[in-house]
Please model this.
Amino acid sequence: MSESPYELYYWPTIQGRGELVRLALEEAGAPYSDVARLPAAKGGGVAAMMKLLRGGGGEALAPLAPPFLKHGPLVIAQTANILLYLAPRLGLVPDDEPARFRANQLMLTIADLVAEAHDTHHPISSSLHYEDQKPEAARYAACFIRERIPKFLGYFERSLEHGDGEHLVGKAVSYVDLAMFQVMSSLTYAFPRAMAAVAPSARLLGRLSDSIAARPNIAAYLASERRLPPSENDLFRHYPELDIEPA
Amino acid sequence: MSESPYELYYWPTIQGRGELVRLALEEAGAPYSDVARLPAAKGGGVAAMMKLLRGGGGEALAPLAPPFLKHGPLVIAQTANILLYLAPRLGLVPDDEPARFRANQLMLTIADLVAEAHDTHHPISSSLHYEDQKPEAARYAACFIRERIPKFLGYFERSLEHGDGEHLVGKAVSYVDLAMFQVMSSLTYAFPRAMAAVAPSARLLGRLSDSIAARPNIAAYLASERRLPPSENDLFRHYPELDIEPA
Model:
């Protein structure tokens, strides 16, 4: 099974949650296909993804939503769960049990932050347009910027201090560091003013993000066409009216 | 380390997310202490919990929020992560790897549903009172009842059909079944009208909940003073004005 290539299924036009999986695969230089971005003639496209979501993935339980990973007969959904599966295989988490649980704990906390960042523009329902929930979004985003960004980033900054100052888990790069880079760069895209205000109390996080972006495989990926640009159809969106000064 | 007793840290007056851990420990008949509910004279109380949250838990990384579990030198936070650690030790998940990842996937999906259920009464911010976000709550809850409850419960119902019809993972009770019971009973407490409407399309889930409640250790727990009553200070709240008819 470890010889099978990894098949990632995610929306083909956004970074979204799938990007956390893409970054891990890219850092490791693992052979993978980003199935929904392949042409239909090669068995790809959104239709191939929808087929598995509707239960056409063999014996495995169909996922509720993308991203999901197909690896041999296994179909694994939920971003943190995909990374829990991949990280040991890709050498992106230490071997010892305390480190594995620390990594998963931090990953789930990152997932919580990502969900809240999404809700800044969709606080009422994902099935409504942003334009149909703008007053609620403004209220939500103000609380997110004033309370939640400092709370989460303060926690991750302390987590770096608790470790070696350069890695969230152990003494080498892990999938959690890659996810943290993605969240920091996405928050900076969405909320440049708010992030500028918090930067002085998130120095280690800033340095971690820079060091991840400079890693050879990640730098090559970010410069490639495989890296999709951020946009206002994505999980993190830049709406200037939501990006207030925290103070 | 496996000889150490389990120490659960969670708010002492609500079921909340801690209840998913309590149910697993109770089903297994594992020796544990619910530390914040113990008297201060026995080293318990909220003060003992706050001490660990502020980093007084030895070498381990301090959690961001309750619940967390202390087991020997390990301090583990994030509900799904605590259960990932406990379930194999308590015999509440099958041994094989596909089942473990299926269980974690379903558990994370339950956690998503729980977070959305919380947001029905706190759609803008957890730091504001419900009374300060009532119009937004009404809008959020309507979407939750019309779209999200059917989507999530439909998925879990199909997951039961995909298995043996009685268990979400494998052929014996797992921590995911216990969590599903907690979510079904909490949703029924919070949204009795909405849940009555969805019941005909969630028959296997209804049967699963009944069978969990009837298990000897769980029945004894539910009848004991250890089981806290639901309330409007909890994660799931019954506000009649939010419990609309879905159709």
